[in-house]
Amino acid sequence: MKKSILITVLTLVIFTVMVTAQDKTAKYVGSEKCKVCHKAASRGDQYSIWEKSLHAKAYATLATEQSKEVAKKAGVTSDPQKAAQCLKCHVTAYEAPATAIDASFKQSEGVGCEVCHGPGSIYKTLKIMKDLAAGVQDPKAVGFIAGDEATCLKCHNTESPTYKEFKYDVDYAKIAHPLPDKTK
Q1: What is the C-alpha to C-alpha distance for residues 55 and 177, in angstroms, rounded to an integer?
Q2: CB 139 within 8 A of CB 145
Q3: Cα distances (angstroms) measured from residue 133 to each of 50, 53, 97, 180
Q4: pTM
Q5: Side-chain half-sphere exposure of 27, counting CA atoms within 13 A
Q6: CA separation for the pair 27, 96 (Å, rounded)
Q7: pLDDT tens per residue across span 56-75
């Protein structure tokens, strides 16, 4: 009897470990999860920089009368906050499958950290972030990306009904949020 219970428990443990090991697909967790470490002034307060940006307000902007008018002129017949044509650039992970969205993720955060840095469920831990900074962790293995001009151009392009000339160096400087240089 005790032997069968032990075998059952061991089987469940092995199965749980195997399932957990296989679930290494990064999921979108939302900018609130980034806030935990990236709000401290000693670390550069990246979260507050994002929070004050137009990116953080991108989803809310779609509810304004001005946005509704722009959407209407662009042929959007539904609520801009529900229209794929608008959401693809005004929220993070709009086109991601439901299996890639964590329960903590909120579309209302607008264009969040994970648009530029990839879904954060794997790399959000302090250990992995330290390993990334030290160069001992492969960013691709944990879903981390460093946003670049191509990332920005997915939305900042002539398809946008409110397009204004996009100059990567100039516009990136407006949202720059570097980690402090600890070597100084």
Answers
A1: 13
A2: yes
A3: 20, 25, 29, 12
A4: 0.83
A5: 14
A6: 9
A7: 999 999 999 999 999 999 99
